[in-house]
Design a protein that fits this description.
heterotrimer; A mainly alpha; B mainly alpha; C mainly alpha; A: mainly alpha; B: mainly alpha
Chain lengths: 319, 221, 497
């Protein structure tokens, strides 16, 4: 069978993330409930939620500006552009994949997050503003960790294109066991926990406004705007899991030829990896308690220590 | 920097990095029981590393060392210290003078200094990769930070014991061939030191009814 | 010769074991006998050791070792005599026999470890011996069970153990350096190590040397690692303080000297001398300043010990054989003088019931012999002729000037003068100044308190007199055998043979 043309695969990457992201959230919620001993919601519940939200009307606060309505769109598009840059389905770089390196991808993620926080601050409502300012503060604390992780990977592979990094990791078994790699992966995992708003940073299960960080930003939105935000955060989650899996931990199973069968297999393995990471996150959710707000700095400091150590061990002895 | 170091070297370096991470965890642990447990885990990791090195580099004497250090540092020493803890009734020691995040930053700076100081020396060893020596130096320096910021006798004593763990790690890297009898003598010396530490901790507790050293300010100048 | 070595190492250990069982009087006698025997043994080692080096098993006595064995044994013997008087003149309590037993066992064990340290053959065994001295002395510092003693012993054991942890790191790096030439499995013995020293790789030796100076320097009282010293030496019982200042600091310095011996041959004299000069000057400056402002006699004497360790370090950094011989002579003379000064402080403590300088007056009236001997000891510490320390410091300074180190030598003389000011002010105030009018001339007098005139104990006086006598001998005319010994040791240290 002929390999699919590259642009088609690229569109397929974006489409995969677009379609399956809410499903991943649904799976995580179900697993978490099962671990707790409940039956939990059905796996496809997030899709039904999105559908319900699209049918409702949007209410805009009186003193909100155009930012309030533009933000969901910008965030959604921003998050959805990142799959263009990272190895989602293929091992080889796709045409638009060289438009940005991993720093560019990070910039897009941060831009989308910034816009969301801006929308929350725009409303003037107290809880939304609280969530926005907290999200920005803790996001700033997590940034150094992510930067050091990027430095580590870039130093290992002498490039910061995600495709080449994944190739390096695939090249030898020894690459997985080197301390820099493991430490960077652990640091990135902790940063992902902070960025997607999971235990021990924030809890998805409750609606207690005082504890909300990420969720609080979108409290004032409703209807399709809220649907866009929800979808966007699910996409962010899947994108981060993809980066963790396809660049660091298990960069196998990607299609190297572009043939439809192998692309389909790649989609399957991507979902499997994402569900795997999601299960780990769900178990962590059920095993630990949420940290007090001021202890979150300790969590960020621990992640920072891991990433700094990764850089140090890399520069001494070459391991 | 792109070539991987090889499975054994990578795994050994990771285990050594684990020792440093446990040292950082000790900086964070406010409860005295968890400090002791972390020390036991750290000693276990060092003994396990000795066993791994003995197996892979085929140095038979290191097996004996690994077993002895397991018995002494993982079993005996935590027992001695937890017995005192049981008698003392105190559970939480506080995380030190500055607060965890600041202490982590200070410890990172200090560990970085140790890393790069040892790294410039170009000491290579046939037994373990060079990064393990740098990690050992970092462990020693972070143990220093732990002793300085904490103000209770148990944390300070555990800090000293973990400093010895760092020195053991360094000796695994550069002195794996040291005659067994000398290594055993070092271990037993450590045990004697632990006993004396225990006696003095009891004396301190008996006199001031607390494990805190914040009141030791009588002698100045 | 070999029998003497074995005797020196086993005798005090047997004495300690005996003291476990014996009643206090017998224990005192056994300790004195053991001390005297050790001193005689050390003296017996002196003549022959500059020609050949007796060795048996893991013991070895070369010229450098014998100097320190002699200092330690002298302190051991005189302290044993002094402690008889010190313990007897204490107010009797129900605890006294148990305290005396613990005290004598500890004393003998401590002296055993300190005698073994210069006699063991190898850097690793040396570390082990010094670690043993640390743990035993920590228990001895805590033996008095006062608040100050508890605080001092905790600080001491923590800081000294951390320092020895660093010293262990130094040992390991030195092993690594040697293993490149001598193969794995060698045991860091001095002879082979010194012989190949010129060919050792420089980087590990440099690192090992600095770590050793910092690590063993913690126990030797070099600034800035000295912070445990004033507390421990002040709060321990006086005989223990005398041993700590006179012998233990010297033994720890001996460990530094062993590393210096190797480093000088590997790296050349520049780097090791610079390191020692830096630490020595820091110690001297700080100690001289602190000496000016002390209230506690024993703390004053402890800072004086820091000062003398600084002088020793500076002397070694000068590097010429004259200066090195002066350093070794100073080790002996300082042991005698410091021990005597502490004995005097102990007698004053017993007589007046306090360590506070402000509260002790007119000791010359009340305990004339002790008072005079105490002032003499303190002045001897400040390099008064004709005592031993004058001769040794003169040698150090002249060696430094001969080698062109003019500035450090000048600084040394200036700071010694500053310390002399502080020490002599305190001592003469205590001994000669009459008390303020209206106050009883000695506290404790008055209705109902026991009469405390006269010497607290003639045992203590005897110990002090022996010390002053030794200082006179060392200063006026050291015996020929001793001079040859010092000369041989200086050459071995400085890179000669």
């Amino acid at each position: 069978m002929n390999p699919l043309p590259d642009p088609a695969v690229q569109v397929l990457q974006v489409a995969t993330v677009f379609v399956f992201a809410p499903g991943i959230s649904g799976v995580i919620a179900t697993v978490e409930a099962r671990v707790q001993g409940r039956r939990g919601p059905r796996v496809l519940q997030p899709y039904y939620d999105l559908g319900k939200l699209y049918r409702k009307e949007t209410l805009v606060p009186e003193n909100a500006s155009w930012v309030f309505l533009a933000a969901p769109l910008v965030a959604f598009v921003g998050y959805l552009s990142v799959p263009l840059l990272i190895p989602v389905l293929t091992t080889y770089g796709l045409p638009l994949g060289y438009q940005g390196d991993i720093l560019g991808g990070g910039f897009l993620l941060t831009l989308a997050g910034f816009v969301t926080a801006l929308a929350g601050a725009d409303t003037g409502a107290p809880y939304a503003q609280l969530g926005s300012s907290r999200a920005m503060t803790f996001g700033a604390l997590v940034e150094p960790t992510i930067l050091f992780v990027v430095f580590t990977v870039a130093a290992i592979t002498a490039t910061d294109l995600p495709y080449h990094e994944a190739a390096t990791v695939r090249s030898a078994a020894g690459q997985i066991v080197r301390p820099a790699h493991l430490l960077a992966a652990a640091a990135l995992f902790m940063a992902i926990l902070a960025d997607t708003g999971r235990i021990p940073v924030e809890t998805h299960a409750s609606t207690l406004e005082f504890g909300m960080i990420d969720e609080g930003r979108t409290l004032e939105h409703s209807g399709p705007a809220l649907a866009l935000f929800r979808h966007a955060s699910a996409i962010k989650q899947l994108v981060l899991y993809t980066i963790l899996a396809n660049v660091f931990l298990v960069p196998w199973g990607l299609s190297s030829s572009g043939r439809p069968a192998s692309v389909a297999l790649a989609i399957g393995t991507l979902l499997a990896k994402a569900i795997g990471i999601g299960c780990v996150v769900a178990v962590i959710d059920d095993s630990f308690a949420k940290l007090r707000l001021y202890k979150i700095t300790e969590f960020c400091a621990a992640a920072f220590v891991l990433s700094v150590l990764a850089v140090f061990t890399l520069f001494l002895g070459g391991s | 920097m792109g070539t991987a170091p090889g499975a054994f070297a990578g795994a050994a370096s990771t285990v050594a990095a684990l020792v440093l991470l446990i040292e950082f965890a000790m900086l964070r642990a406010p409860m005295l029981r968890s400090q002791i447990r972390l020390y036991a885990v750290q000693s276990f990791v060092v003994s396990a590393l000795a066993g791994i090195v003995a197996h892979d580099r085929r140095i038979g004497e290191l097996y004996v060392l690994a077993v002895l250090s397991f018995l002494l540092k993982v079993v005996a020493v935590p027992l001695v210290v937890s017995r005192l803890l049981r008698d003392a009734d105190t559970e939480i020691a506080g995380t030190g003078a500055f607060g965890v995040a600041s202490e982590f930053l200070i410890a990172i700076v200090v560990a970085a200094f140790g890393f790069f100081a040892v790294g410039t020396l170009h000491i290579s060893s046939a037994v373990l990769p060079r990064s393990a020596l740098a990690l050992a130096a970092a462990v020693v320096l972070v143990a220093f930070v732990l002793i300085i910021v904490r103000s209770d006798v148990i944390s300070q004593a555990v800090g000293f014991f973990s400093l010895e763990n760092g020195v053991s790690l360094a000796s695994l890297v550069v002195a794996a061939g040291l005659p067994l009898i000398l290594e055993v003598a070092f271990l037993f010396d450590l045990l004697v030191a632990v006993v004396v530490f225990g006696i003095l901790m009891r004396v301190h507790h008996g006199r001031s009814a607390t494990l805190s050293t914040a009141g030791l300010t009588r002698l100045r100048g | 010769m070999r029998a003497v070595l074995i005797l020196l190492v086993t005798g005090p250990l047997l004495a300690a074991l005996a003291c476990l069982r014996l009643p206090p009087r017998r224990a005192q006698a056994v300790t004195i006998v053991s001390g005297a025997a050790s001193l005689l043994g050390a003296l017996a080692l002196v003549p022959g050791v500059d020609r050949h080096t007796p060795a048996v098993g893991f013991l070895r006595a070369d010229a450098l070792s014998v100097v320190f064995v002699l200092a330690t044994a002298f302190c051991y013997a005189t302290t044993a005599v002094h402690s008889v008087g010190y313990l007897r003149s204490e107010q009797g309590t129900a605890e006294a026999p148990r305290y005396a037993r613990r005290f004598y066992v500890g004393l003998n064990l401590f002296c055993w470890a300190m005698l073994a340290a210069p006699l063991v053959n190898g850097l690793a065994l040396l570390w082990i011996a010094i670690e043993v001295t640390t743990v035993i002395s920590a228990l001895l510092v805590a033996i008095d069970d006062t608040e100050g003693a508890t605080e001092a012993s905790w600080k001491y054991v923590l800081i000294a153990s951390v320092g020895l942890g660093i010293a262990l790191l130094a040992t390991i790096f030195m092993y690594y350096a040697g293993s490149q030439l001598l193969g794995g499995g060698y045991d860091l013995a001095f002879g082979p190590l010194v012989r190949v020293a010129h060919a050792l790789p420089a980087q590990p030796v440099r690192l090992a040397y600095v770590l050793a100076v910092v690590g063993f320097g913690t126990k030797a009282g070099l600034v800035p690692m000295h912070t445990w010293l004033p507390d421990a030496h002040a709060e321990a019982p006086t005989p223990v303080s005398a041993l700590l200042s006179g012998a233990l600091l010297a033994d720890s310095f001996y460990a530094v000297l062993r590393y210096h011996q190797v480093a000088v041959r590997t790296l050349g004299p520049a780097f090791p001398d610079a390191v020692l000069l830096a630490f020595g000057l820091a110690s001297l400056v700080l100690a001289a300043l602190y000496v000016l402002d002390q209230r506690d006699i024993k703390r004053l004497l402890a800072y004086s010990s820091v000062e003398h360790m600084g002088i020793l370090a500076i002397g070694v950094s000068f590097g010429t054989p004259v200066a090195l011989a002066g350093v070794l002579l100073q080790v002996l003379a300082h042991a005698a003088a410091k021990a005597t000064a502490f004995f005097g402080a102990g007698a004053l403590l017993r007589g007046y019931g306090t360590k506070d300088i402000e509260e002790i007056h007119a000791a010359a009236d009340r305990m004339p012999v002790t008072g005079v001997l105490f002032v003499t000891a303190v002045l001897a510490l400040s390099a008064l002729p004709p005592f031993g320390i004058f001769r040794s410091e003169f040698q150090i300074v002249s060696g430094g000037l001969a080698a062109g180190h003019d500035a450090p030598a000048a600084v040394l003389v200036a700071l010694v003068t500053v310390a002399f000011l502080g020490l002599s002010l305190a001592a003469t105030r205590m001994v000669l100044q009459p008390g303020p009018a209206g106050e009883p001339a000695w506290p404790g007098d008055g209705p109902g308190s026991p009469a405390r005139r006269g010497e607290p104990s003639w045992w203590m006086v005897t110990a002090m007199a022996v010390g002053i006598g030794a200082l006179l001998v060392l200063g006026v005319h050291p015996p020929g055998a001793l001079t040859r010994l010092l000369h041989t040791a200086a050459l071995a240290l400085g890179g000669g043979t």
